[in-house]
Amino acid sequence: MTSAPVIPRPAATVLLVRDHPHPQAGRSPVQVFLQQRVTEMAFAAGMTVFPGGGVDATDRPDPHRWEGPEPRWWAERLGVDVELAGALVHAAVRETFEECGVLLAGPDVPADLHGQRADVVARRRSFAEVLAAAGLVLRADLLHAWARWITPAGSARRYDTAFFVAQVPDGQEADAHTTEAVRALWWHPAEALERWQAGEMLLMPPTVRTLQEVAELDESAAVIAAAREREIRPIVPTLRREGDRLVTVLPDNTAFPSTGLPGQPA
């Protein structure tokens, strides 16, 4: 008897970008923030990923603490219903705060929110409660849609993930203070891809493809500009057996071994 496919869980991930001079002249200064997940994680264990995670029950945006495009605008942009669109944006901002301490909010983010961040991570307080207590509003205008990836059918855990990009607000720094990652660093995309090609970094197909796209741009402002022009359609890879290995195949027929190691055209 064939079991029914797992229904993808909504999730959000954020490409934090900044400009930092590359040591080699003529190479793009764009950097992205990447985290290597701990090996105990149920999904993507040991993989290097962008900050993010699943939508949870607390991701209900408060219209009084929201600045920027409204959920209805995001629904049209992402191709989802209004309620889910608001939850995805809320989750993107919450997860970025939880995982790397960057808070996409305003008008003036306090310098020290370590205690509040710990409360949100431990679920002692909701993210909405932290925003309200600090007199802050969620800045949806600081996010820009990049893509939407859906885990292949047949996977034990599936996610329908909205990918966003954002520049780190002035005065804030991304950090590695999360129990979900063993390390977190800023990377020039081309260098991360070189590590992946050498088998020194595990990357999932959506991460590889996103890094390849960002690596072609010459500054973080260009990444934001490109995001505004992108058409967002669900990207649904498929799984295929090749001998004794399972590969993930993208719609353009690029195949990646399911180990997260380098891929090649199929």
Would you give an account of this structure?
- With 266 residues, the chain is of the alpha+beta class.
- The chain has a single domain, classed as Alpha-Beta Complex (Nucleoside Triphosphate Pyrophosphohydrolase), CATH 3.90.79.10.
- Helix content is 27%, strand content 27%.
- The strands form three sheets. Strands 1, 2, 3, 4, 8, 9, 10 and 11 form an eight-stranded mixed beta sheet that branches. A four-stranded antiparallel beta sheet has the order 12-13-14-15, with no helix packed on it.
- A hairpin with a 6-residue loop joins strand 14 and strand 15.
- Helix 1 (71-78) packs across helix 2 (82-100) and helix 5 packs across helix 6.
- GO terms for molecular function: hydrolase activity, acting on acid anhydrides, in phosphorus-containing anhydrides; metal ion binding.
- Keywords: Hydrolase, Magnesium, Manganese, Metal-binding.
